[in-house]
UniProtKB/TrEMBL annotation:
Protein name in the entry: DNA primase
InterPro entries: DNA_helicase_N/primase_C, DNA_primase_core_N_sf, DNA_primase_DnaB-bd, DNA_primase_DnaG, DNA_primase_DnaG_DnaB-bd_dom, DNA_primase_Znf_CHC2, DnaG_bac, DNAG_N
Cellular component per GO, a single term: primosome complex
Cofactor(s) the record lists: Zn(2+)
UniProt keyword Transcription present: yes
Subunit structure: Monomer. Interacts with DnaB.
Coiled coil segments of this chain: 568-595
Keywords assigned: Coiled coil, DNA replication, DNA-binding, DNA-directed RNA polymerase, Magnesium, Metal-binding, Nucleotidyltransferase, Primosome, Transcription, Transferase, Zinc, Zinc-finger
Catalyzed chemical reaction(s): ssDNA + n NTP = ssDNA/pppN(pN)n-1 hybrid + (n-1) diphosphate
Record note on cofactor: Binds 1 zinc ion per monomer.
Higher taxonomy: Bacteria, Pseudomonadati, Pseudomonadota, Betaproteobacteria, Burkholderiales
Biological role stated in the UniProt entry: RNA polymerase that catalyzes the synthesis of short RNA molecules used as primers for DNA polymerase during DNA replication.
Amino acid sequence: MIPHSFLQDLLSRIDVVEVVGRYVQLKKGGANFMGLCPFHNEKSPSFSVSPTKQFYHCFGCGAHGTAINFLMEHAGLTFPEAVEELAQSVGLTVPQEPRAGGDARDAGQWKQAIGLVDRMKAASDYYKQTLKTSPNAIAYLKKRGLSGEVARDFALGYAPDGWQNLEAAFDDYQADALVEAGLVLVSEKTDAQSGAARRYDRFRDRIMFPIRNVRGQVIGFGGRVLDGGEPKYLNSPETPLFNKGSELYGLFEARLAIREKGFVLVVEGYMDVVALAQLGFPNAVATLGTACTPIHVQKLMRQTDTVVFSFDGDKAGRRAARRALDACLPHAADNRTIRFLFLPPEHDPDSYVRAFGTDAFGHQVEEALPLSQFLLNEIVADKPLDQPEGRAKALFEAKPLLAALPPNAFRTQVVHMLADRLGVPFGEVAALCGIDGAVQRAVRDAPEKAARRRVTGNEERALRNLVMYPGCAAVLGDEEGAALRYAARRELFDEVLTHIRALGAHADFRLLSEVLRNTANAPVYEEIFREILTYDENVRDLVLAPDTDGSVERYQDQTRVAGEELQAALAKLHYDALRERCDRLSRQSKLTSEETTEYADLLRQTADLRRRLAPVAARE
């Protein structure tokens, strides 16, 4: 776990304008910098980067965040990866706090992985140089129709035949790190002279495909034989750097094309990815010789809301598609599109494009089968639906698949489709599949859009001040705590205050926003973030952190004012709640003695609150 104090120090040292400026062309526009949004297509700049707030905000699509969030969204990095990249840029080392109940080995494994990066880069550079002087390897790539440009873009290389060629790349060929990186194998046989175990290169006489993470670091290799031989493809083993079940070949190279084209194309092999990039589909990626996993899908969904899987039409392709379907089900949100493309058995994407052209393949992509239809086909396949046995078997197989879907509108639509296909009432299908209550609750318990998206009136004002200036929470006493009892969304205040206390002296808007955007109530906070960021258009001297431009006194003054406004907002919330109770009692024809006492006490409290609120009302 990365300490909050380190995050605060990191955010105070980096400049969001400089970080964003590496990827977006920015021009000064008033107090901020403006550019074309990298998260959606636009012709006029609506993407604003504030040097005083150290935040970016797009007025077109609503994208916003700190430098950490920008790297996560634009480069597809995880939170620790984004923090590590920013820390390296300012010469900091990321410390690690032990997780509660976690494994103390995590930090050591992480440091070990970082230490292997240089080894992998050196090996990749060696393979690239070797390719340039290997006529057989060059001839093979040309036969497959690959150009020198695409080979360069994907850093293709060649591992020559022989047992210890990597000795030319590493002075310390006997180092354990080369074994840990998966570059060298240790034989059971020993050297006759030294008595040490013999070593040899893992990859020999193969075209080398470097596998890069989203930061562009080489973390593994895929090697393809030139002629005959088994296995046709050989991958790096599992290492502290590399895990096949979570990495995708070509994702680093495809990131910008994915955003530009609006979807990612998932294919089955390295060669498909490289060939498609050359043939007009640079937004293709591939799993690494393993089935598609939920982690793969999650990583893809960080890049785009539309995923198209392309599989060969043979039995193996169908099996791979089914595994991909299973991996996708938990991620089938209402705002996402997942489709499945099946090519004729005799073709893979590379051969299909070369045989029929780019437009024909593009048409195949557009006509790919939606997830809902593929799911339904799998449920009813090879079952006699005109017989009770067939329908019962379909419902039996549907149950775990439907249960894997989130309880959203999409799942409800799939249940309707299945009910129509089987000729069975919707409620019966839902009940038999064990999701009847979940479907109904998802619709019944979903809060109104306005309640989900924003909090109104005094609550909104109070929440906004707490998020903008966490330090103003210090003004809250017993009276304000009592007022929070009347908040319609009290759980939001409790959550924000809990995180402010956890952050302690390090709490400011930048750090608190990073924490809140990872909570279950993130949609509400996102709306508050947008409102705060639009202040820049009207309040030019707003300071959201004391160290962004040296305005410590101004930040403290604005925190003090925010605290006063917070107290006033909560007092007004308290006053409104008391007045509502007074009105209810006054409308009763007869009051009990207890109610009479309560009514008198309420009148006294409201009169006191009204006097306190009068100066605030006058200022407003």
